[in-house]
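REQUEST ID: PR-0412
SUBMITTED BY: lab tech R.K.
PRIORITY: routine
TASK: structure prediction, single protein chain
INPUT:
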Amino acid sequence: MADPNLAHQLVTSEGSSPTRWMFVLHGIFGMGTNFRAIAKAAAAREPSWGFVLVDQRGHGASQGFAPPHDLNAAARDLEALADHLARTKGIEVRGVLGHSFGGKVALAYIERRPVDVAVLLDSQPGPRILGEETDSAANVLVTLEALDHGWEKREAFSEALRDAGYSAGLIEWLTMNVRRDGDLYRLRLDLPAIRSMLEDYFARDLWHVVEQPEFARTMSLVIAARSTVFDDVSRARADAAAFANPVLTVVVVENAGHWIHVDAPSKVLDALCDALAR
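STATUS: complete
OUTPUT:
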């Protein structure tokens, strides 16, 4: 019988015995290993914390999950995994970090299970229009849906994205999803499930989780300055929420776009470790 839990990897500092653990949630098209280097560096700085790098449903090795595919289902996946880790390994999940879609999954999760630390990376808590801005997941999804999903060489996938105008860093990151399948290379992504989850991500309003203090002891909203995810109105709302909610901190990372962990990994690490230390 297949493992019903999300695929995941554990990261700790060598020789440490963490007493608290943090889920690390990638965005759409990602996988847990996208954050391996950041998690290793954070564990070295804060060895009392361990990190659970999660492949969310429809991504990486977490395939075959039943619909509906939405934020609530993704949050329930995390609840099941947290219970499994507690039962089998004595791991207590007391934090969550999420990028983009993963940030909103994090909010849906901590609405059910409050945590010590929550860090949201360029994840706007409110509803938005499902658009096709150049740095958005929606634009990438449209591109991937239009591509042939089989290539004789991995480089052919990269070339197609290069022709579509994507940056070298983003292409390298997306190419991590390409795996050999028989005679061809194919995407290890469930694109119909991802479209369903992305539509729910854009539709849901979870500002109340950010604006109220009972869901986390410490929460950081990390905004990429060059991203279109936060407009002037949502930036102002984030600042107002931080003024009213003593547990919330807003961090703006200059010279970074939406794929903030690709553009500014050291800044992401600093924001994470600052939150863990508070």
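NOTES: The chain has a mean pLDDT of 93.
REVIEWED BY: pending
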